[in-house]
Input
Amino acid sequence: MSHEVQDRIETPLDTGEQCAASGDGAATEAEAVTGAEDVALTVNGSIRRAIAEPRHLLVDTLRAGCGLTGTRAGCHEGICGTCTVLLGDLPTRSCLVLAHEVREPVTTVEALEGDPEGDLIRSAFARHHALQCGYCTAGFMMLALAMLRSGQRRTVEDVRTVASSNLCRCTGYRPIVAALVDIVAARDLLDGDEVTP
Ligand code: FES
Ligand code: FES
Output
């Protein structure tokens, strides 16, 4: 990661200035970053213009360029799933995608704020105490949102398989799976009886 990107991750004021609605002068900021180019992303229903070098990852551009720090990077190697966002409706590891390659709308955990599906997801995680340090939580919440958007019916075992794509070092997974099962059941997408995972 470049020093420019790292600096912006650690400086909220700077991140706010880097991401803005289309046409507000982001190109001028681009000129200030050596080798960087303007990139337009559709994030949570809005067009965002950020500054990203061609080699920059989506996760870092969301955080450093757009100030959307709810998406976290754990391993930066495609293993942990902590950086999961939706591209279109598909859960995607944003550390495996270059920002300049993105063509689909991006949904991040910030989209859950004030959203009915977001309320369902957040209340289930709270009810089941499905987080401790919370570092992995955004990734698991995006898995939940992807399951709701797919409309696919799933068994508890299917939900466990979905959850297994992401790593959590704190909870032991049972509370997370319980929350995910509740979320699926609340939208009548659970096949079979709901059981304590
Ligand atoms: S940070 Fe992307 S998978 Fe770990
Ligand atoms: S709650 Fe700490 S890593 Fe999952």
